Every structure is written in structure tokens, then in C-alpha cells.
């Protein structure tokens, strides 16, 4: 078990470092191939500067060439993918097919969370990839085909309406596509649980950030988070979904 957890974490961290490249370069006009370099001085990275998490800590978060700061995105994405992979192993072992399946879902989730946070949009391809996985789940692992399909459609319609009637101010259309997949993946009760968690977490964290934004008018810090700036919602949706998947939470338990 311990060895499995360690291997899962390391695999996740390595996948996470590939995700970092995708998050940084996808749809930005930069090529996805080619060696990574420092964003400030352009210095190509050697293998010793590419070790997930370790390199960042070793270099104290600075470029070896020009000493400019390296984004916290790198170690955060690497370690959270690692932890997620290990948690999946811990909660689903020994069913290898399910573990690999959820590792794929986890990779897509981390990409969407970080990309949406950074660029305020979910790339269609990431949504389609997740949708494909959700369809696989319904066909091969799913408890109930009809329940999953109805849940996905209901979620999609609700979010589509929220998007349409708010002119995209509350949510993006990408969020509607995302909840279609989450409904398919989770089914009715887990799906509703995930949405409730997402709204609660979104409210708590959103209000916290807005509060910080208010305070920051005095401190002139955290200027990004004011009332007008959108807090991306996909991270909360996926966080809610993962809490539900990993810990079998059920919101109906409380009623
Ligand atoms: Zn540099």
C-alpha cells in the first residue's frame, strides 16, 4: 500500500509537470513541443531543473540563470496532481482499471482548474476529453445509464440557463459543458452533492477574496479580486466533484 501510494504520488507529480507546460502554452501561440526555458531570460532548462517539486525547492523558486522568480504554479500543480493520484490509489485500490480511469479524470481536472484560474476560460478540447471519459464511465463502470444521462442533461440545462440569462456574467458556457460531464460521471445524488459543495466553496472563497479586495483598497494589495472581476467557477465545480468522489460525501445525508 505504502509503495503504491509513493509510486502514485511520483507518477502524479510527473504528469503534473507535463500539465504545467500545457497550462502555460496551450492556445497561446507557443508550440507545445520543445524544451522549457525561463520566461525571463530564455535560458533552456537542464534535466536537474526539471525535476517536479524538487527543482523548485532546491532553486528556492528562482531561475538558475537570472534569479528571477519562478511561478508558484509549477510546484502547486505538480504536488496537487501527485496528492490527487495518491488519494485515488488509496480510495480505489485494488481496482486497477478504475484507478487508471480516475487518474485520467484527475489529469483533465487539474488542467481545467489551473487553466480556468489563469486564463478565465476552459479550453473546448479539455471539456471534450472529460466528456469522452464521462461517456466511458457510463458505458463501462456506471451504475445507471439513464440516471447519469438525465443528471448530465439537467445540470447542463440549469447552467446553460444561468449562462444565457446572465449574459455570461455569472458563468461561462464552458461551465455548462463541464457540468454535463460531471453529471454523467457522478449520477444524481453524488452529482447534486458535488454542485452543492461547489456553490458553498465558491461562496466562501469568493466572499473571502472580495473581502480581501475591499481591504486591499487600503493596503493596495490583492488588487485583482474586486467585486467586478470574475472568480472562475470551474475550479469549485471540480473541487466539489473530487471531494464527492474521494470521500463518498452525500449532501442528502444531512436532510
Ligand atoms: Zn532566467
UniProtKB/TrEMBL annotation:
<dbReference type="Pfam" id="PF06750">
    <property type="entry name" value="A24_N_bact"/>
</dbReference>
<dbReference type="Pfam" id="PF01478">
    <property type="entry name" value="Peptidase_A24"/>
</dbReference>
<dbReference type="GO" id="GO:0006465">
    <property type="term" value="P:signal peptide processing"/>
</dbReference>
<feature type="transmembrane region" description="Helical">
    <location>
        <begin position="233"/>
        <end position="254"/>
    </location>
</feature>
<dbReference type="GO" id="GO:0005886">
    <property type="term" value="C:plasma membrane"/>
</dbReference>
<keyword id="KW-1133">Transmembrane helix</keyword>
<dbReference type="GO" id="GO:0004190">
    <property type="term" value="F:aspartic-type endopeptidase activity"/>
</dbReference>
<comment type="similarity">
    <text>Belongs to the peptidase A24 family.</text>
</comment>
<dbReference type="InterPro" id="IPR010627">
    <property type="entry name" value="Prepilin_pept_A24_N"/>
</dbReference>
<feature type="domain" description="Prepilin type IV endopeptidase peptidase">
    <location>
        <begin position="105"/>
        <end position="207"/>
    </location>
</feature>
<dbReference type="InterPro" id="IPR050882">
    <property type="entry name" value="Prepilin_peptidase/N-MTase"/>
</dbReference>
<feature type="domain" description="Prepilin peptidase A24 N-terminal">
    <location>
        <begin position="10"/>
        <end position="91"/>
    </location>
</feature>
<keyword id="KW-1003">Cell membrane</keyword>
<keyword id="KW-0812">Transmembrane</keyword>
<feature type="transmembrane region" description="Helical">
    <location>
        <begin position="6"/>
        <end position="26"/>
    </location>
</feature>
<dbReference type="InterPro" id="IPR000045">
    <property type="entry name" value="Prepilin_IV_endopep_pep"/>
</dbReference>
<keyword id="KW-0472">Membrane</keyword>
<feature type="transmembrane region" description="Helical">
    <location>
        <begin position="129"/>
        <end position="162"/>
    </location>
</feature>
<protein>
    <recommendedName>
        <fullName>Peptidase A24A N-terminal domain-containing protein</fullName>
    </recommendedName>
</protein>
<feature type="transmembrane region" description="Helical">
    <location>
        <begin position="182"/>
        <end position="212"/>
    </location>
</feature>
Amino acid at each position: 500500500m505504502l509503495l503504491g501510494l509513493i509510486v502514485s504520488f511520483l507518477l502524479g507529480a510527473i504528469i503534473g509537470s507535463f500539465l504545467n507546460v500545457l497550462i502555460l502554452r496551450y492556445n497561446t501561440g507557443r508550440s507545445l513541443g520543445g524544451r522549457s526555458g525561463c520566461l525571463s531570460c530564455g535560458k533552456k532548462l537542464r534535466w536537474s531543473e526539471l525535476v517536479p517539486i524538487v527543482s523548485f525547492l532546491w532553486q528556492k523558486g528562482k531561475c538558475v540563470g537570472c534569479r528571477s522568480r519562478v511561478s508558484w504554479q509549477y510546484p502547486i500543480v505538480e504536488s496537487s496532481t501527485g496528492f490527487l493520484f495518491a488519494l485515488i490509489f488509496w480510495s480505489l485500490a485494488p481496482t486497477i482499471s478504475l484507478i487508471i480511469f480516475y487518474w485520467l479524470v484527475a489529469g483533465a481536472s487539474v488542467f481545467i482548474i489551473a487553466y480556468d484560474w489563469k486564463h478565465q476560460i476552459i479550453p473546448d478540447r479539455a471539456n471534450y476529453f472529460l466528456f469522452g471519459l464521462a461517456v466511458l464511465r457510463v458505458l463501462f463502470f456506471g451504475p445507471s445509464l439513464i440516471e447519469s444521462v438525465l443528471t448530465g442533461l439537467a445540470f447542463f440545462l440549469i447552467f446553460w440557463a444561468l449562462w444565457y440569462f446572465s449574459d455570461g456574467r455569472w458563468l461561462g458556457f464552458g461551465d455548462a459543458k463541464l457540468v454535463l460531464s460531471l453529471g454523467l460521471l457522478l449520477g444524481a445524488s453524488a452529482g447534486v452533492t458535488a454542485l452543492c459543495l461547489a456553490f458553498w466553496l465558491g461562496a466562501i472563497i469568493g466572499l473571502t477574496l472580495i473581502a480581501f479586495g475591499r481591504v486591499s483598497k487600503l493596503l493596495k494589495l490583492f488588487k485583482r479580486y474586486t467585486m467586478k472581476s470574475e472568480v472562475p467557477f470551474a475550479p469549485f465545480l471540480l473541487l466539489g466533484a473530487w471531494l464527492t468522489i474521494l470521500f463518498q460525501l452525500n449532501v442528502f445525508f444531512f436532510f
